[in-house]
Amino acid sequence: MSTETRHKLVEELIAQCESILAEQPGNRCCIYAKDYVLSDEFKALSNDECITFYNCIKTGIDNHDSGLGCYAMTPDDYSKFGGFFDKVIRDYHGDKTGEKKHETDWDTGDKDYDVKKLGLEELSMRVRVGRNLVGYNLPGAMDKEERIKFEMGMLKSFEKLKEKYGGEIYSLTPDFGTEGANPNLISEEKYQELVDAHVMFKDMAADPYLNSAGISNDWPFGRGCWQSDDKMRIIWFGEEDQLRIMCMKKGSNLLEVFSKLNEMLQTVESIEGIEFAKDSSYGYVTSCPSNLGTGMRASVHIKIPNLTSDGSDKKAKEICKPFGLSVRGTGGEHTPIGADGTVDISPSARLFIKESSIVEKLYEGIEKLMEVENSTDGAANKKSIFQKIFGKK
Known about the structure:
The chain is of the alpha+beta class. Helix content is 40%, strand content 13%. The chain is built from 13 helices and ten strands. α1 (3-23) runs antiparallel to α2. The model has no long low-confidence stretch (mean pLDDT 92).
């Protein structure tokens, strides 16, 4: 690529960004990319590195309504394109100091997070983390051969996990190419059964954001999961991150699934050949900057019929946002709430927060949410409950 060609591409990208921002001013990709391509750091990049950077931001250019609009293609991208990613990351995760570094800490001490103390019965609880391995591209840059190689490389690890937890491997990969047949291949019917049970992830090819980032390429090669005999432990492979490691259970003590996940992560990390990619500032590396740090999402399904009486989660989202909670449908993001008013809630923070603090914030958020849910419907009473929670007049 000649210098003249690079200049033209930069000019076109800046014009695209400015046009998108006129329509969608919250697109962080465009906010920071248009300045980054004029920086000394960008000018020093090789042509191949410039192409990689464009692939990182392609989803934000293609999907104008993106809030972030970027995915890393390799674990090193967060440092290689640091002049861009650091601004996006600290803006999204609310670090106005520009100096925070992530700290990993699972120690909850002698805390007790049993929701029965809040008058609740057992809840459906799930805690998951995103992880990626050193030595591989992130999913957006993987081709079919690397996806197959990654899956085959994980088979020995799954066998080690099966020694401790039992279980089965469910794979969608039609075949292993020159390596032959896939012994773990499942039928379409079995796949749909696992999706319906929230054990397996849905076809990513339907997601325009993942499509633009290359993450859904080569579907269904390199995709599948392992599930333990007790059905509580699951590892997805080949989704937005190379691995999504999770524990799920119906119970009342939030620490139960939290502790089981920590124990399983330690088991996974002890397996030869497994090394999770980390960044000195951002903690565990994930494809999307929104999940950096802990890579953790700790959630519960909870009934709030009063706040969802209109059949939507609109009021619930308004209530939960000040508590630092995200609200989703029972099937995940962009899915409907339960007919009985059940929603999925989880703390929004991932980065610059300790793992132990996430489970604490979930418990505190449940407590505050139920105070509002259980208050009477009158506007005055709702106002008084907010005064009690936030200490405002």
